[in-house]
Amino acid sequence: MIQVANEAAAAPAARRDGRALRAGIAQRAEGLAIPLAALLVGLLLFSAFIRALGKSPTQLFELMWRGGFGTWFSIQNTLSRAAPLLLAGLCVALPARLGLVIIGGEGAIVIGGVAAAAAWPAFAGAPPALVVVAMAIASMIAGGAWIGAVGALRHFRAVNETIASLLMSYIAIALMNHLVEGPLRDPTSLNKPSTLPLPDIDRIGAIPGLDLHWGLVVGIVACILAWLLIEKTRWGFAARIAGGNMRAAQIQGLPVGALIVGFCALAGALAGLGGMIEVAAVQGAANASLAAGYGYTGILVAFLARQNPLAIVPVAILLGGVGASGGLIQRRMDLPDATVLVLQGMIFIVILLSDTFYGRFRLFNPERWRRNG
Amino acid sequence: MADRGGAIEVEAVGMTLRFGAFTALDDVSIRIRAGAFHALLGENGAGKSCLVKCMLGFYRATDGQIAINGRETPIDSPRDAAAHGLGMVYQHFTLVPSLTGAENIVISRADAPQIIDWRKERTALTRFMETMPFHIPLDVPVSTLAAGQKQKLEILKQLYLGRRFLVLDEPTSVLTPDEADETLGHVRALTESGALTVLMISHKFNEVFAFADEATVLRRGKRMGGGPIGSLNRDMLAAMMIGDQKIANLDARRLASEAPDVLDITGLRAPDESGLKTIAVDALRVKAGEILGVAGVSGNGQKEFLEILAGQRRHDCGAIHVHGAPYCATRAEMRKLKVRIIQEEPLRNACAPRMSVAENLAFRTFDIDESGRTRVLLDGKAIRCGAQRLIEQFGVKTASLDTPIAALSGGNVQRAVLARELTGEVDLLVVANPCFGLDFAAIADIRARIMKARNAGAAVLLVSEDLDELLELSDRIVVMSEGAIVYETNASCADPHEIGRHMAGHY
After folding, report:
1. Could B375 and A234 be called an inter-chain contact, meaning their C-beta atoms sit closer than 8 Å?
2. Helix or strand or coil: residue A209?
3. Tell me, what's the ipTM?
């Protein structure tokens, strides 16, 4: 009798476990399938656009593949472009977990790069490792303060963080131009005003054996750490509560203000670090090339990755490849440089639209599989 | 169509409404004879609002017909319904607060002219008002009217628009008992005079028995029964509404001896939501083992008061003490002083809808280990085990621990929140409208839990818009009106009408 009862109790439990497992798999499949489908729709729209220009989309995609991923040279080019996108993507994804839409990563990159270049003279002559670390810290403080201020405005004065961060990035670019053309200008930089060039010894070098700087590794490590922060620590959990429902976080007595300012500052610090890497590994000095649009592409990266730091890695590499192929497309197909921006824009709109499709497909909802109607 | 000006008979035959796989209405037939005051009863989710929305053209029924005065009449849109004289008064007001009653009435007309000749309209309105059994001031902004007057204005508006069949959706939920009696009395008079047919959605039995003359009960989208009020009694209606569900019993009230004050509020001042009025609580104390009920018509500062206690709103001055220690609603204080706060609408206030059930159940404890020390890294296994335990103890029905909590029914979300907040030692429990929008079984269950917490020695501050709930649970009741405590009484000898008068601000 007892055994019978036990079996009867065990059967529904097993069925429930099976259901839960199926629901979990379906949820993950949905999270993968919808962005991929959106990407595909974006590419189709872009094909129509290219067709309307009288060019061949197949030739374009083929060039894109060749320019981004086709050769060892292009892969290295892609990866070095992906490096700043990783950090710029995190600058969007981390505040997004708190429900904040920060689109001013460009400003933090610029200000971080300028801060690194401005800090260098104070440490010139010190051991190179120390110089690099000092520049990194300076850039993170500057970038952190920049976006942290946006978070503080949001929390204490209810200023819209999206607008504030965008406007702050214009201020950052103007500030950079002022400093680079004025107080920080290297008198020998004639055509392109720049700060003093870093000597080779104080630059971030290439990964041994590759034509690729260490920025990629820093970016990937930052993504992994950010994922751990969000998924595995109390601060990340608290941030997810606040992002899921600010009122619930307040009722639980969580320090909402500290979370908002802290996550924004961290996000800005990472973007600032990205700016420092651009200065110390690519440009060799701070100049207008810092505002190359990485901060804006980072928004697309974060949204395509659904604000998941781990997913940022493949997405950043994909978009790095798209960017890397821009030159080749321009030369071979006689299309303007902005073509790649059109592609990014189309994908972005479709990705935003795709967000409304979650939970709508019966395929991804096992509870509704067997019923009809 | 019937002659203009008289009540009409409305009948729905075999109404069926499906949303995908879900059947909201299953072959429901209901006949409301001309001049009837018909009550439509049922729990939340029983299909009451689906039925009336089909009758009024908001939803298109999957199957079934509407007949008006015995003739089949297709109603495909709210406009069709209005053309046939069918209208609805919603639970919440649809008047424009800054306009006067007269302006509200005239602009709601479908054929309101581009340029309104106010003199002409006003004469027409005065003539119309003379035929009405009750009057309200039409020349002052609606925002200055009391809730009961607004509700009457809504009804007047519908009559002015020529409606002869009116659906009232829980018309008294925002009224005091006296206001409710008066308003329903007038509605009853209108039906008796043959001017109007009324279908009233309600879940208050005393209202139904005092004013309605027929009733229909729905459960899970099916008609369970009904008939003339004379042939029914409370037990029959309750049985039809809830079926054979088990209802939790309230524990006997354990008498508290002299207990210390747990919550002590003095001189509290804060601006209300609009920033124009002030929340002013001069002195409020809650003892251990006592339920203090706070009554009041919604919008009289209860929400802001709760938000201050919950740390969602700052106050200008005043002191909140718990166990004699100052309290500012930080996590550390809540934990040390054993304060739990359960705001109304749990999905909006107490849960992160897209996070899983397990994660939502861990909100209070994710950052400490078993011995209460703070931890940096989460313990996923402990979170899941804890959630499993709470789900079993409190009977939360969920497909799995990983289901987003928003996918649960309202009652189960509320149970999950109670499970999280009522586990462990509780010294001060602040609860707001805990049963709003829940079914009978869940309500009884949740009230029983609150009583258990009280009997275990917690001080309970219960803020509710449901006076019956307060009378059932509280030891003491205070009334909040215009942000201040205006009345206090022992619950055992409380007079609901006296409380109602203070709620309405007439004292």
Report:
1. yes
2. coil
3. 0.84
A251 in a structural domain: yes
* CB atoms B376 and A234 under 8 Å: yes
Show residues of chain B in contact with A373, CB under 8 Å.
18, 20-21
Closest CA to B413 of B426, B403, B425: B403
Compute the distance between CA of residue B353 and CA of residue B346 in angstroms, rounded to an integer. Answer: 10
Q: Which of A245, A355, A365 to mutate to test the interface with B (most CBs of B within 10 A)?
A: A245
In chain A, what residues touch B331 (CB-CB under 8 Å)?
A: 252-255
Q: Is the pLDDT of residue B247 over 80?
A: no
The total of structural domains in chain A comes to 1
Which residue from A minimizes the CA distance to B417? A248
Buried b (16+ CB within 10 A) or exposed e, A100-124: bebbbbbbbbbbbbbbbbbbbeebe
Q: B418-472, pLDDT tens digit by residue? A: 899 988 899 999 999 888 777 777 788 889 989 999 999 999 999 998 888 899 9
Greater confidence (B504 vs B197) lies with B197
Residue A17 lies in a domain: no
* Domain assignment of residue A285, yes or no: yes
Phi and psi angles of residue A105, each rounded to the nearest 5 degrees, phi first: -60, -30
Which of B441, B450, B486 minimizes the C-alpha distance to B470? B450
Task: Specify the pLDDT at position B2.
Answer: 37
pLDDT bin (cut points 50, 70, 90) of residue B331 is very high
Residues pairing with B31 in the sheet = B11
pTM to 2 decimal places: 0.80
Q: Residue A232's domain spans which residues?
A: 75-305
Q: Which of A231, A234, A371 sits opposite B367 (nearest CB)?
A: A234
Nearest CA to A135 out of A278, A257, A25, A259 is that of A278
Tens of pLDDT, residues A124-147: 889 999 999 999 999 999 999 999
Q: Extract the runs of DSSP E, i.e. beta strands, from B143-273.
A: 165-169, 197-202, 214-219, 222-228, 261-271
Residues of B with CB under 8 A from a CB of A: 18, 20-21, 310-312, 329-335, 341, 343, 348-355, 359, 362-364, 366-367, 374-378, 399-403
Cα separation, B196 vs B189, whole angstroms: 9
Residue A32 falls within a domain, yes or no? no
What percent of chain B is predicted at pLDDT more than 90?
42
Q: What is the pLDDT of residues A13-22, one digit of tens each?
A: 566 667 667 7
Q: List phi, psi (to 5°) of B27.
A: 55, 55
Residue A240 has its nearest CB partner, among B21, B343, B355, at B355
Sequence-ordered alpha helix ranges (H) in B338-399:
346-349, 357-361, 380-394
Strands B325-326 and B317-322: antiparallel
Distance CA B367, CA B363 (A): 9
